[in-house]
Design a protein that fits this description.
Largest sheet of chain C: 6 strands, mixed
Order of helices and strands of chain A: HHHHHHEHHHHEHHHH
CATH topology of the domain at 7-88 and 161-239 in chain C: Rossmann fold
Radius of gyration of chain A: 20 Å
Oligomer: heterotrimer
Number of helices of chain C: 9
Structural class of chain C: alpha/beta
Order of helices and strands of chain C: EEEHEEHEHHHEHEHEEHH
Shape of chain A: globular
Number of strands of chain C: 10
CATH architecture of the domain at 7-88 and 161-239 in chain C: 3-Layer(aba) Sandwich
Number of helices of chain A: 14
Helix content of chain A: over 70%
Structural class of chain A: mainly alpha
Chains: A mainly alpha (about 325), B mainly alpha (about 290), C alpha/beta (about 240)
Strand order of the largest sheet of chain A: 1-2
Strand content of chain C: 15-25%
């Protein structure tokens, strides 16, 4: 008899993410400090952080948000501009970026949720947000690429080699994982899952659907806005193109392929897709542009039509024979 | 600096022409959404795929782009039916998030196959017969755009008639209203779904032939047509053809005005802002009931 | 007993387009009772529940909960003030486990997830839900189990008034019998006042302290179950012979 009566120690759930973070901390040593691999690993850690932040609105609350690049771009561009124009350290800039994207999320989300905008209309309004910011940025910033200046050190959070940024990204990722685990174990998490299942039924149980959806959106936008500067640094440039619909879709692809609500599935998906994208781009980028996007498309269709729960079920299925052999008996 | 009145009038006329074409594309999407409750984010990408087919046919056979519709429209009806069985049917009744995600995936496949096959440069297959302008007071009218607008209007109105006056239309409307009752009344709901999905995709093929008489195609053409179609549905509610026509014209004019007066690079942002404003202030659409 | 009724509904009118679903319904649910609300299909029973729980806003009339006017308040506020409901057409939480779904209800009265878990286990045990299925996902259980989870979810919010909408529709006779016991227990052991909406006469007669009859959006009879079933107006409404 497991589940309902079994009670883990109060902070036991923190152990796996911390162990994982420690393991990931060894990656630079494993790749012999090869800068390209460390950069790829850094990007994957940042994208995984964004995807796990998205998991709160998309996976737990079930709202298909396609605006992650809007919050990432707002946070990143604000922090970078503050640093370049006013010499403000990105540590403060990232907090400002987080606040700015939370502010925009509130402006968008409050009226939408107030009027019960959901499902397709919610997804479309997040697409619209990215389109508006993309085209607004062309007007305000011009069609140019801006470079993060070659300043170095912890004050600027930019280094000659990538290890330090990688460690910073790992800390961010660990933090986002802890937030995810905490949310899904809290009242908020149960309410978000109930909203995802059936808003009307959740409301009848006393769930203030608007409030909790807005809360989920704000947590997500804050975390993504905070990560923005790290993303800009790994991209080396920023521009109107940072507000990118394909990037936002990529984040949702990771969430869906990994399995909505599943932290380990999303981590796995972020790592696999990240490496696959690097490989496909490096190998076929010149001859077959868009191959990686084609692969995402096929993945979405396959996962959506055949395996609605994503990699989470795949890993469970793969592990099942092992579990049966060593633990005896089939668990549901 | 104020734009000249003649520029405004010209933009209005161009916007109205464009709006009629939008209504043709949006009608198919709204039928699929309204009747089946299926959310298709790849609708515009079928238009893009068909536009490439038009380009290939028109340039290899040296025919008018419009003539290719005789081939592309039936072909895309079949394509639509196939997509229905492969993708839409397994997802009917599933959560909207999955429908959106999967159709985004279908769109990605179409876009990137197009990108690999035709590269990113825009392709055009201008109509020889229709590529003329004639003056109408201060306005210069592009014959191709006028023909596209008139044909779109005729077909949209014709379909409206079909939906209101024929047995097929009755079956479609009954299915949209209450699937189970329609089944009890002897409507083969599955057939209605195939027909509606096929029709929706076939309309994008028709629209692409009209578009290619004056426009050009690149892999991302569909993304903007798809977004515009959804915005039209949001504005028009699901109230039917008059709502779709009116909101298509509004979006056409908004895009044409911003293109001519501000910059072509902000025309989608303008449409998006209209969309967000409508969601905030008139969540049931500009013309009432959903 | 003449204490303040738990629920008082006055002159409720609800129209949908040209159809009048409720045409001036007034009734009371008294503290501690099981009130049966019956009527043929389309008589306005579910519309009444939706108007009370805030899903619909009535066109006219007021709804009072323990004397407080709650007309037109949003559903989540009505729920937190103490009105819970179940659904005629089950609305399962397919991907959540049975226990999690009931916890979502219990979390209305506590912020502590462990406390909610204990409460959910208690409620599920009390209504006799099989313990070995506490961890089954919602999509894998049977219809009667869905109905029980739906009931447990609602009970876990610790309502003052629970509106049960056609809970035995589609159930087999022995399951109906078991459900009578479950609902009595909720009423007696937890002291929850109940409004039981149903069109199966036999069930309502066996369970209710008092019955009201809705027909075409109006209240046509009220009284003890045994009397109401004899009422010629009620018989007519059910047998469908229309007064000319």
């Amino acid at each position: 008899m497991g589940g309902p009566t079994l009670k883990a120690s109060r902070f036991g759930w923190l152990a796996p993410p911390l162990a994982l973070a420690a393991l990931c901390g060894l990656v630079p040593h494993m790749v012999g400090f090869n800068q390209y691999y460390i950069l790829v690993a850094t990007r994957i850690a940042i994208v995984a952080s964004v995807a796990l932040s998205w998991n709160i609105i998309g996976g737990l609350a079930g709202q298909l948000d396609l605006a992650s690049s809007a919050y990432l771009g707002l946070g990143g561009i604000l922090a970078a501009e503050l640093m370049i124009k006013y010499g403000v350290t990105p540590w403060i800039g990232m907090l400002a970026g987080a606040a700015a994207s939370a502010g925009v999320a509130f402006l968008i989300g409050y009226p939408l949720f107030r009027f019960g905008i959901r499902e397709v209309w919610y997804a479309l309004s997040t697409v619209a947000l990215v389109v508006v910011l993309h085209e607004l940025a062309i007007v305000l910033m011009g069609p140019f690429d801006y470079y993060v200046p070659p300043v170095e050190g912890w004050y600027y959070l930019r280094f000659r080699t990538w290890e330090n940024l990688y460690y910073v990204s790992l800390v961010l990722l660990a933090f986002v994982i802890v937030v995810n685990l905490w949310v899904s174990r809290s009242k908020l998490g149960y309410y978000l899952k109930a909203i995802r299942e059936d808003e009307t039924a959740a409301e009848a149980l006393g769930v203030d659907v608007r409030k909790y959806k807005l809360l989920a959106l704000l947590i997500y936008a804050t975390l993504v806005g905070f990560a923005g500067y790290l993303y800009v640094v790994t991209q080396r440039t920023y521009s109107y193109k940072t507000f990118s619909a394909p990037f936002s879709i990529y984040i949702a692809v990771i969430g869906i392929v990994g399995g909505l609500g599943s932290v380990d599935g999303i981590l796995l998906a972020a790592a696999m897709l990240g490496m696959a994208e690097e490989y496909l781009r490096a190998t076929f980028g010149g001859t077959l542009p868009g191959l990686h996007l084609l692969v995402y498309g096929l993945l979405l269709v396959t996962v959506g039509v055949l395996r609605p729960e994503g990699l989470a079920t795949v890993t469970r299925r793969l592990l099942r024979p092992v579990r049966t052999r060593f633990l005896g008996g089939e668990s549901a | 600096m104020l734009p000249s009145p003649s520029l405004i009038v010209q933009s209005l006329v161009d916007g109205v022409f464009l709006g009629f074409l939008f209504s043709l594309v949006a009608l198919g999407l709204s039928l699929v959404f309204g009747v089946m409750g299926f959310i298709n984010f790849a609708h515009g990408d079928f238009l893009m795929a068909s536009a490439y087919l038009v380009w290939v046919l028109a340039s290899s056979l040296r025919t008018e782009p419009l003539a290719t519709a005789a081939l592309t429209v039936p072909l895309f009806f079949v394509v639509g039916a196939a997509v229905y069985f492969l993708v839409a049917r397994p997802l009917l009744g599933r959560e909207p998030l999955m429908q959106i995600a999967v159709t985004v995936g279908v769109g990605y496949v179409l876009q990137n196959v197009a990108l690999m096959s035709f590269r990113a440069e825009p392709r055009a297959s201008l109509s020889y017969a229709l590529n003329t302008y004639f003056g109408l007071g201060p306005v210069s009218v592009h014959a191709a755009k006028l023909v596209a607008a008139l044909m779109s209007f005729a077909i949209v109105v014709g379909l409206d008639y079909l939906l209101k006056r024929t047995w097929f239309g009755l079956a479609v409307r009954a299915t949209a209203y209450d699937r189970e009752t329609a089944m009890l009344m002897g409507v083969d709901v599955n057939k209605v779904y195939v027909a509606v999905f096929g029709l929706g995709i076939a309309l994008t093929a028709l629209a692409s032939s009209l578009w290619m008489t004056f426009g050009q195609v690149d892999p991302y053409l569909g993304a903007s047509f798809g977004l515009v179609s959804w915005i039209v549905i949001a504005l028009g509610g699901l109230g039917g053809v008059p709502g779709i026509l009116a909101s298509s014209l509004i979006i056409g004019v908004v895009q044409s005005l911003t293109t001519n007066i501000v910059s072509p690079s902000v025309k989608m942002a303008a449409a998006s802002v209209v969309f967000l404003l409508v969601l905030w202030f008139r969540p049931r659409g500009l013309f009432g009931k959903v | 007993m003449s204490s303040e009724p738990i629920l008082r509904v006055e002159g409720l009118v609800k129209r949908f387009g040209g159809v009048v679903a409720l045409n001036g319904v007034s009734l009371e649910v008294r503290r501690g009772e099981i009130l049966g609300i019956i009527g043929p299909n389309g008589s306005g029973k579910t519309t009444l529940v939706n108007c009370v729980t805030g899903i619909y806003r009535p066109d006219f009339g007021r709804v009072y909960l323990l004397g407080e006017d709650i007309t037109g308040e949003p559903p989540h506020l009505v729920a937190s003030k103490g009105v819970a409901r179940t659904w005629q057409k089950v609305r399962p939480f397919a991907k959540m486990t049975v226990l999690e779904a009931v916890m979502a209800g219990a979390l209305l009265r506590t912020g502590d997830v462990e406390e909610a878990r204990r409460e959910a286990v208690n409620v599920l045990t009390m209504i006799g839900f099989p313990r070995e299925k506490f961890d089954s996902p919602g999509r894998s259980i049977s219809l009667v189990e869905h109905k029980l989870v739906d009931l447990a979810r609602a009970v876990a919010t610790r309502p003052k008034l629970l509106l049960v909408d056609e809970i035995v529709a589609g159930l087999r006779p022995h399951e109906v019998e078991a459900m009578v016991g479950v609902i009595r227990r909720v009423n007696k052991e937890l002291g929850v006042t109940l409004g039981v909406i149903e069109h199966v006469m036999r069930f309502i007669v066996s369970i209710s302290d008092r019955v009201v009859v809705l027909h075409e959006g109006r209240l046509i009879a009220e009284g003890p179950p045994s009397e109401v079933v004899q009422n010629p107006l009620v018989v007519e409404a059910y047998l469908g012979t229309r007064p000319m």
